Amino acid sequence: MIWFACKKCGKHHQQPADAAGSLVFCECGQANRVPWESTVPAPEKPAAGDEDRPRPRRRRWADADDEDEPGPRRRRATRRHGPGRCLNHEDAAAAETCPDCGEAFCPRCLVEFQGGRLCGPCKNYRVRKLQRPPHISGLAVGALVAGLLSAPFVFCITLAGLGSGEPGVIFGCAVVGMAIGTAALLFGLAGLRQAEGKAAGGGRGLAMTGAACGAAGLLWSLSLAVMMASRLVQG
């Protein structure tokens, strides 16, 4: 026999060994799961009047969620099962362990998903995660803003230098434009790396656009600087 105490009122109950894992209700209305071994010592002799007292009603897992059961409705406790047995089918041997929850299941309870075998609830959880809208990286948004601002700024600086007609001034403006374009390009690459590093991350297009704007400003300034440098050397 298995002896255990009610979690609410502390009353001691007994159940046969084959009732381990079943759900029983105490007279106070508390649902108790029969443990696999006794958690309280067995009494030396039955208390007076206990022979005529009805035993608590025992319920198996199949009807554990009936709504017509007396007592307050409570969250079902975690199910315990024997070693090497399926979590859902007590009469079936476990074949594999779900990599997400770590529980053992028989082949009927496992499904192929994303290159692995998962139980049904873990598969559904992964599906819900995939269906969530992607989280846009803040760095990717910043890269887009930096790229869109740097490109016209670089062109304005270099055009101002060209308007002066002085090769030295033009070369200096080109160097400033190179620095701005390089910074925007690096910012965009950092945003792209952060977006690629997250499975459900978004913002790849934003980061690529920012990096492209920075690269355009860098190439324009670099070509202008090379031209002015060659003029300064020849002059």
Short précis:
The chain is α+β, with helices and mostly antiparallel strands and 235 residues long.
Write the layout of secondary structure elements.
Blueprint lengths: L1 E4 L6 E4 L7 E3 L5 E3 L24 E2 L36 E2 L6 E2 L4 E4 L2 E4 H12 L3 E2 L1 H27 L2 H30 L4 E2 L1 H31 L1
Parallel strand pairs: 10-11
Antiparallel strand pairs: 1-2, 3-4, 3-5, 6-7, 8-9
Helix pairs in contact: 2-3, 2-4, 3-4
Description:
- With 235 residues, this protein is α+β, with helices and mostly antiparallel strands.
- It folds into 3 domains: 1-80, no CATH class; 81-132, no CATH class; 135-234.
- Helix content is 43%, strand content 14%.
- It has 4 helices and 11 strands.
- The protein has helices at 120-131, 138-164, 167-196, 204-234; strands spanning 2-5, 12-15, 23-25, 31-33, 58-59, 96-97, 104-105, 110-113, 116-119, 135-136, 201-202.
- The strands form 5 sheets. The protein has a 3-stranded antiparallel β-sheet, with no helix packed on it. Strands 1-2 form a two-stranded antiparallel ribbon.
- It is rod-shaped and about 115 Å long.
Can you give the mean pLDDT?
76
Quote the beta fraction: 5-15%
SSE succession? EEEEEEEEEHEHHEH
Output the radius of gyration.
Answer: 36 Å
Helix content range of the residues, please? 40-55%
The residue ranges in which pLDDT falls below 50 over 5 or more consecutive positions are 59-73
Oligomeric grouping of the chains: single chain
Strand order of the largest sheet: 4-3-5
The main β sheet shows up as: 3 strands, antiparallel
Instruction: Give the number of DSSP strands.
Output: 11
Terminal CA distance reads 106 Å
Based on Cα principal axes, name the global outline: rod-shaped
Q: Based on helices, strands and strand pairing, what is the structural class? A: alpha+beta
Number of domains: 3
